[in-house]
Amino acid sequence: MHGEMGRVTTPIRAENWLDTELRAIGARKEEPRRLETDALVDTGAVKLYLRASLIQQLGLRPIGQITSRTMSARSEVRRVFSLVSLEILGRTGRFDVVELPDSLPNVVGQIPLEDLDWVVDCRNQRLIPNPEHKHGELTDEF
User: Fold this and answer.
1) What is the predicted pLDDT for the residue at 88?
2) What is the pLDDT of residues 121-133, one digit of tens each?
3) Which residue in 13, 50, 118, 139 could disulfide with 87, CB within 3.0 to 4.6 Å?
4) How many CB atoms lie within 10 A of CB 28?
5) How much is the pLDDT for 93?
6) Residues near 63 by beta carbon (within 8 Å), at least 6 away in sequence
7) Regarding beta strands 34-41 and 107-108, do their DSSP bridges make them parallel or antiparallel, or are they unpaired?
8) Whole-angstrom Cα distance, residue 127 to residue 142?
C-alpha cells in the first residue's frame, strides 16, 4: 500500500463469487477467476468500483445499474455487476461491483472499508485496522 500526494492506494484481490459457489457444489472444476491489482481508497465513494477490463477478466454478470454523482457534480449511470470476494490486506468480504471506464482507477469506497473494518490513516497515507476495535476485526449487529 502506498500514498502519493494525499492519495491512498491498496492492493486488492478480487475473485468471481459465482465461480467459488459453483466449485463448492461441484458444478465447476476450474479454479475461480481471480485477479490482483491496486485500488484507490476513497471514503467519499460508497461501493467497490472496478475497471471494465477487470470486470470482463473476472467474468462478472451485469445485474443492474445505479446513478452515480461524479466529482464534477454530474450524474452518470453505471452498470452494476455480480459479486466478488474482495480481499484487502488479509480481510475478505463479498461485494457487488460498479463498472468504471478503464481510464479511471479502481476504487474501494466506504461500504467495503466499513465491512472489512479498515480506516484511513491520513497522516501515514495507509489503511489501518479500526483503532476502536482493539481485538481485531469487529462487525456491529443490531
Assistant:
1) 98
2) 988 999 999 888 8
3) 13
4) 15
5) 97
6) 80, 81, 82, 96
7) parallel
8) 26
CB atoms within 10 A of CB 106: 19
**What are the pLDDT digits (tens) for 66-84?**
998 776 678 889 999 999 9
Select from 74, 72, 71, 68 the least CA-distant residue to 49: 68
Residue 60, Cβ neighbours under 10 Å: how many?
Answer: 25
Domains in the chain, ordered, with CATH?
Answer: 2-129 (2.40.70.10)
The owner of cell 477487470 is 54
Residues in the chain: 142
